[in-house]
């Protein structure tokens, strides 16, 4: 329906639960493909950032499922029983020049320890130069849209069949003009 939308009158718990389940399944299929693409295109250094890429399907306040795609936070990694987490923002968006300080200041205002790489000490603070942005997540998602849609087709076809089944009963729905609310 190009210029209309279907408004269901049968909004029973069972019907809505089934529609949400099928749409969540389609989102999950697309999420798997997108997370795998991000893992493959993540800059490799230690492999921890690559392993932290993932997805999850959550439910909004109105019950509509939506897809979260990105990297596990420390809290989310702990919930998912993963030993690793990462924050790709520094790579994705870059950084400005900033100071890195060692430890916290004590009562007298002195920093407790010095920064080192294990063999040599650098001092109490280091001036970090800016890091250029490398937007690998955005470019990966935009280049993988066709594969994500292809993965979602199975779930969306099941959802379409269910909607057609529900719309075959005239008392269950009506088609309204205009955009979806």
In words, what does this structure look like?
There is one protein chain. The protein folds into two domains: 11-91 and 133-167, no CATH class; 96-130, no CATH class. Helices cover 41% and strands 20% of the residues. The chain has six helices and eight strands. A two-stranded antiparallel ribbon has the order 1-8. It is elongated. The mean pLDDT is 76.
List the helices and strands and how they pair.
Blueprint: E1 4-8, H1 13-41, H2 48-51, E2 53-59, E3 65-71, H3 74-79, H4 89-93, E4 98-101, E5 115-116, E6 121-123, E7 125-128, H5 136-143, H6 145-167, E8 173-177
Antiparallel strand pairs: 1-8, 2-3, 4-7, 5-6
Helix pairs in contact: 1-5, 1-6
Features:
two-stranded antiparallel ribbon, alpha+beta, 6 helices, 8 strands, 41% helix
Can I get a quick summary?
This protein is α+β, with helices and mostly antiparallel strands. It is built from six helices and eight strands; from the N terminus they run E-H-H-E-E-H-H-E-E-E-E-H-H-E.
Q: Provide the helix percentage.
A: 40-55%
With strands numbered from the N-terminus, the spatial order across the biggest sheet is 1-8
Q: Please tally the β strands and state the result.
A: 8
What is the CA–CA distance across the termini? Answer: 15 Å
């Amino acid at each position: 329906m190009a210029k209309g939308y279907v408004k269901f009158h049968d909004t029973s718990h069972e019907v809505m639960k089934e529609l949400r389940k099928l749409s969540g399944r389609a989102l999950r299929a697309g999420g798997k493909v997108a997370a795998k693409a991000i893992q493959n295109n993540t800059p490799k250094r230690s492999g921890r950032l690559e392993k932290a890429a993932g997805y999850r399907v959550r439910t909004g306040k109105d019950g509509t499922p939506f897809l979260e795609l990105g990297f596990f936070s420390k809290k989310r990694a702990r919930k998912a029983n993963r030993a690793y987490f990462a924050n790709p923002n520094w790579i994705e968006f870059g950084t400005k020049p900033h100071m890195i300080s060692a430890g916290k200041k004590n009562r007298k205002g002195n920093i407790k320890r010095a920064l080192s790489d294990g063999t040599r000490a650098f001092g109490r603070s280091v001036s970090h130069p800016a890091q250029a942005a490398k937007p690998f997540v955005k470019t990966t998602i935009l280049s993988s849209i066709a594969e994500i849609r292809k993965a979602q087709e199975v779930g969306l076809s099941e959802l379409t069949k269910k909607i057609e089944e529900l719309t075959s009963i005239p008392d269950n729905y009506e088609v309204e003009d205009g955009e979806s609310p």
